[in-house]
Every structure is written in C-alpha cells, then in structure tokens.
Amino acid sequence: MTKKPSARLSALALAALTALMAGCSFMPTYERPAAPVAAQWPGEASATPAAQPVADIPWQSFFSDARLRALVEQALANNRDLRVAVLNIEQARAQYRIQRADRLPSIGVGASGSRTPQGNGENLTAYQVGLTLSSWELDFFGRIASLSEAALAQYLATEEGRKSTQITLVASVANAYLSLLADDELLELTRQTLATREDSAKLSKLRFDSGVASELDLRQAQSLLEAARATLAQLQRQRAQDQNQLTLLVGQPDWAQRIAALPATSRLESAVMMNELPAGLPSDVLTARPDIRQAEQQLRSANANIGAARAAFFPRITLTAGFGTVSGQLSGLFEGGSWGWSVAPQLLLPIFDGGRNQAGLDSANVSRDIAVAQYEKAIQTAFREVADALAGRATLGEELRAQQAQAEAESARFKLSDLRYRNGVASYLDLLDAQRSLFVTQQAVVQTRLAQLQNQVTLYRTLGGGWTQQP
Known about the structure:
Outer membrane efflux proteins (OEP), four-stranded antiparallel β-sheet
C-alpha cells in the first residue's frame, strides 16, 4: 500500500519535529584521563590480577574477632559521619530530580481578574480561568540536558562518597579496637615492671640503710621507679583517649556493655586477620576504590557543565501557553463561546552581555581542568597508600621477629645481671641498665605487633575492602 503525498509529508514533518525537539549537545566527549602511576607496585617483581579482588572480601570475613565485628556493626548503624554521607545522597538525588524536571513543561491551573479604565469613563473587566504553561524552555541546544547530566554525575559522586566513608569507618573502628588491645597489654607490662622496680627500690633502700649499697644505687633505683610510674600514667591517659575515639566512631556510649558477653581477645597475638591479601594490578584499584570513582564522577559533572556553558551562546527559546475561558463576568466564565487558547513563543539571542557567557565558559573549562587534576591526584594518593601498606607487609614481620628475639635476649640478660649482682660480681648499675633495656624492648614488641596488625587493616582499606551494602 502506497502512502499519499500528504501523509508522507506529515511523517517527514513529524520526524523533523522530533529531531528538533531532541536538540543537540555541545557537551565535550568524555575521555578518562590516563592513570599517572606505574604499571606495577614498587618492590613487586611482577603484578598479576588477583583471583579474588580484596574489594569483594566482606569485612565479616576479614575480621575474626567477635567483639570487633559487633563494634563495626554498631558503627555502621550509629556513626554520624556515615549518617551525613547517606543524607548527602538523598540531597543530591533531590537536586538531580529538580534539575531533570526543568526538561519537562510545568503546567498549572491559573485564575485571574483585571479591571482596566477606558477613555469613556467606563471600566473593562475580564476574568480568566484555565490551564497555563509558563516559560517552558525548548532545549534545542542541550543546555538543560547538560545541567541535568552534571547533576546526575554529582548524585553518583555522593553515592561513591558514602561507600568511601564506610570503608574508612570500618578501618578506623578496627584500628581503634587494636589500639585498645595494645593499651591493655602495655598497661599490664608496665604494672609488672612497676612492681619489679618497687621491689628493687625497697631492696636498695635496705642495702643503703645497712651500709652495703651507695646512695647512687638508691637514687638510680628510685629514678627508674618514678619513670615507670610516669609511663603508667601516660598509658592510662592514652587508653582513655583511645576509648573516647572508639566511642565517637561507634556512635554509642554503652558499646562496652553491648559486647561484654562476646568472646574476648585479651592479647594482640590472638587478633587474627587474613594475612595474605592479593594486591593485584594497580589498575584494579581504579575500579575498586570508591574515592577514585567519586573523583571521576565529579570530573564527568565538570565536563557536562562545559556543554551548558557553550549552549548559553545560542538562542534560548521559551514557550508560554494557556487554555481556558475568559469572560467579563464571573457568571459567564463557563458559558458557551468563552473558551479559547493562546501560544506565545519567545526567542532570546544574546548579543551583548558584558562577557558573561564567555566568562562562564572559561570558568567551566578551568573547573574541568581542576577536576582532572583532582582525579589524577586521587589515583596517585591511592597508589601511594597501597604501596606503603605493601612495604609494611614486607618488612614488619621481620622487624617483629627480630624484636621478639631481642626481648628474649634482654630477658636472659636481666636474669643473669640480677644473679651476678646478688653474688657481688656485677654492679647495681648493670642490673638497672638491663632492667631498663628489657622494659623498652618489651614495649617495642607490643607496638610493632600493633603496627603489623594495623598495616593489614590499612592494606585491606586501600585495596577497596570494607564496603558492603547496608539496609
């Protein structure tokens, strides 16, 4: 069946109108900048893709401590920073919906009345009721579409920001919990050392009173005793501050009571985590870390704003229309013959604006360049964080082993020095020096073990681990 010429022309006109209404876009084609980092991690002989990306390992599997898992769950439910991040998503979603609504006409019901004096002394009265379409911009050049695209990218950026906040929160809770374990262990060690030094000070006082020891030995013993007391006070203050930090992260003051019934980890040695985390390729981090995806969405938003700034140089066409009834009397508004409609298109072509549009375009271009630099900086920062954590994993184990061996040697030295001093072979100075070295070395073992565990948490975080969808 062959169409009539009039039907064919109508179809062509409809297609042309559809294409015209679709408009065009001056938004630049988005191209992801090249990652300004090396192809493999420093110190790694070769980088291979990970069998299971760290970002896919849930934190419930990474942390084996029941109390720590409970604390993370409480933090995800009550932490205020995470709550603000979620609310930012809702706000960005609303802003996107507002911007997207500008692409559609706004139709409402309007009623008006007017009285205009005439030259013959009479007044012209008119009442109008009907549907109105006010100043709907026909987006021929993609200005509103570009703004809508920019708002969408900002909304997606807040989504990624929320994920990044959760990842940081999970790691922060774990590090604060490990710090508390270390504080308790150091406090126990300091109390034991303090008791030993009190006994030594009492013995020195007895020997001094008996004329066997000199005043120098007595004063040295008293000095070490007061140093241990000062260390104990410092550790008590540090533990209180770490507990306050954990309270802030968890968001509940009674978190200790909530986890009291769960199995406790008394020492850092039993705080087991997943040791072997696959680093994978540096390019894997680009897709695993939400902070990098957030920076890229902000770059997309800046790129879309350039399209809106370019479209501002072209005519802006708006349409105002109405359909309703008009009458000189209220009672005649809905009588026959009073219905009518009106259409009032308007075209505004910028000719002179004092350089406003050009300045807006220049600003949009600079904003995109800033977003590119921020995106590249986010990649470089992520690369550095992962590289630092890998360096820690490669060296902290050997450092801990050496310090444990040193602590065993210092313990044996202290016992021998004490035996030699009691038999009159060594001086009291040798005994005090051995006691002081043993305490410092034992402290270093605890601190290095804490650094090793926290480095595992940091590596897990920097590789994108810690994000799970919350209800």
